Amino acid sequence: MSRILLARLGAAALLLTGCWIAFTQTQAPPAKLTLHKVKDDLYMIEGDGGNVAVYVTSEGVILVDDKFDQDHDGIVAHVKSITNLPVKYVLSTHYHADHSGGNAKFLSTAEIISTANARTNIVNHVQSNAPPGVAPARVTFTEETAVFLGGKEVRARYFGRGHTNGDAIVYFPALRTIHTGDMMAGTTPLIDYTGGGSVVEWTKTLDAAMKLDFDTVIPGHGAVTNKAGLLAYRNNIEKLRDRATGLIRQGKSQEDVGKVMAAEFGWAPNSMQAQWSLPGIMTELK
After folding, report:
1. pLDDT on residue 239
2. How far apart are CA 286 and CA 209, in angstroms?
3. CB-based contacts of 158: which residues, under 8 Å, 6+ apart?
């Protein structure tokens, strides 16, 4: 082999090594995930994507949601910190990637369950900013389903449209606790009209869910709260809807309505609410 060829191969190897070092050094570190005990054998993993509920039974673990794909290892590590048993089921609250993005990695070892509409939205790639590879559930339901594991029951109910057209409320009857997904998230609603959401139906859906017997609420994002907290969130949506309806019927422009939403409800100009929700409410509430 000639010296010139050896020199070129050596230079190429150095270049590849340098590129690999640069690549690995510029990768974002894993997101910090925090485990909180909610009550008894129910926990919540917070951080990066939506809140994940972890229900430990004598036969395995039931999760509610699984965040993004990159959070899989962190979620599993937190589960292993409280039990040696595997995750058997993942109940998905809706199709968005910050709640269902980990499906692909869990499907080899656990059963994923969602509403039929949530599955359809993943299959049809409805979320425009979703990363590639979000996997749909293999098992779906239209109104209600239940999982029984280790003598414990978890129910999932579809009460109607709101954040999307396929939001499941997950109910832990023995613990009088619900996981709302993004039917309650943060301080103000995100209405995903492309995904079938509705600000008009949202309060009706929450009214139906409020009939469940519960006192503790795990929201899609944010701190664990209670039934009064969920009611306050529901009432704020009603207030927002009525305010927007009045402005739209006065003939105000989308820009004008957006300014009021920003000033009174925290819809920042470049927020997802401004991008996804504002155009939709202009049509739905006219």
Report:
1. 98
2. 27
3. 115, 117, 141, 142, 143, 144, 166, 167, 168, 169
- Under 8 Å between Cβ of 113 and 91: yes
For residue 29, the model assigns a pLDDT of 64
The amino acid sitting at 282 is M
Q: 181, exposed or middle or buried, with CB in 10 Å at 0-12, 13-18, 19+?
A: buried
Nearest-angstrom CA–CA distance, 20 and 36: 37
Q: Other CB atoms closer than 10 Å to residue 202's CB: what's the count?
A: 23
Check residue 67 and give its pLDDT: 98
The answer to whether 147 and 52 have CB atoms below 8 angstroms apart is no
Alpha-helix residue ranges (DSSP H) falling in 48-174: 72-80, 97-100, 103-106, 116-123
Tell me, what's the pLDDT at 115?
Answer: 98
Q: For the whole model, what pTM was predicted?
A: 0.89
For the four alpha carbons of 26, 32, 33 and 35, in that order, the dihedral sign comes to positive
Q: What is the residue extent of each domain of the chain?
A: 30-227
CA distances to 28, 81, 230 from 34, in Å = 18, 12, 23
Low-confidence ranges of the chain (pLDDT < 50): 1-27
Question: In this predicted structure, what is the pLDDT of residue 31?
Answer: 80
Q: What is the CA radius of gyration of the chain?
A: 22
* 153/173 Cα distance (integer angstroms): 7
Tell me the CATH number of domain 30-227, given options 3.40.50.720, 3.60.15.10, 3.40.50.20, 3.40.50.300: 3.60.15.10
